[in-house]
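Q: Could you fold this chain for me?
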Amino acid sequence: MEETLASFVQKTRDNLGMSAKGLAQRANIDLSVIEDIESGKDLFLPVTIRQKLAKALRCSLDDLLALERGYQDIIVSEDVIMSIRNRILNHEKEIACPKCGQPLVVKIEKMYDLEDNLVLQPKAHCSKCVFQLRD
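A: Sure. Below is the predicted structure, expressed as structure tokens.
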């Protein structure tokens, strides 16, 4: 069986004689984050969480990075991008990230062109992974 981020964190924590709550306290991370990682829900860690977790588990950042899902390998089609843009412009708030499925943080930026016409520019970034909706 291939080792996952979830199994690595759980196994390493067990080997150090810590409970999930103990790891959360030692790493100064919410217990719910540890539970999400160990259940396989979180496959990509924010930099600060990865650093705290590596220190608490006494492993290297590379140990964790090697097991994280490679979101950079997932290609998002132009059709999906256009759909997200349209949904934002239609004032939808609950839009899932096309890379990891977590909620997107969305907003509509008001800009003006050279002729002083109002232009609405949809913006979005993922609350978990590296996805951004760019111009």
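A (continued): The two ends are 42 Å apart (CA to CA).
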